[in-house]
Amino acid sequence: MAWSTREIAELAGTSLRAVRHYHEVGLLPEPERLANGYKQYGVTHLVRLLRIKRLVDLGFSLSRIAALGDDDDHPEKALRTLDAELAATIERLQRVRVELGLILKQGTPTDLPPELAPATAAVMSDADRSLTVVMSRVLGPQRLQAYADMLRDTPTDPTDREFDDLPADADEPTRRDLAERIAPHIRTIYTKYPGVAAPHIDARRGELITKTAGAAIRELYNPAQIDVMQRIHALLADTPHDSQR
After folding, report:
1. Going by C-beta distance under 8 Å and a sequence separation of 6 or more, which residues neighbour residue 43?
2. pLDDT digits over 19-47, tens only?
3. How far is it, in rounded angstroms, from Cα 109 to Cα 117?
4. Phi and psi at residue 192, to the nearest 5°
5. Whether the Cβ atoms of residue 182 and residue 241 lie closer than 8 Å to each other
6. Parallel/antiparallel/unpaired status of strands 32-33 and 39-40
7. 8 Å CB contact between 9 and 19
């Protein structure tokens, strides 16, 4: 019995393009051609094609099928590896569904992890929001939770809006005055949420956190705002406590 390319594709439940691709990548041997140039497939080709189709349906990639060679009758090791990969994929997709449910229910942003998304419901400047997105990628789980708790539970301060609106050419007295008024608020935050003051402790990439935060701050805030941050840091350093050291 012999079949054409179209017939063998229909028997295997696949497409002409798939059959041709299997030839191209070496998974399916090329059959002999008739005098008219048409390919003539036999039972051996059909069995091989059905096995390829079955493994593809199970989730094997073509490169992995090729690596199996002739061991495609019961590739136990490959099946166990694939099973573990599928289990991890299912777990990831389940987490994604939970997060999507929260986003749809609470109307929270999609660019932040679930710990931080509800906390950012309060009004944030574009710069603060962008910095939060960046920090969410480098903070460790404990510090991320501390950051989320701080954002959620700390009321806005009158100086927040002043800092957001500070022009790049603000004079020195204005910058000094603002820093002196913000510093007590930051000191209170560090006392209540010591984890925020030491973000590098359980960071995912501890060696990069300072560099990443610094680069983000330089790009997101204007020179006057950065100067105020530096002044606040200096003011807090003058009255150190455990969480600031």
Report:
1. 1
2. 999 999 999 999 988 887 888 899 999 99
3. 6
4. -80, -30
5. no
6. antiparallel
7. yes
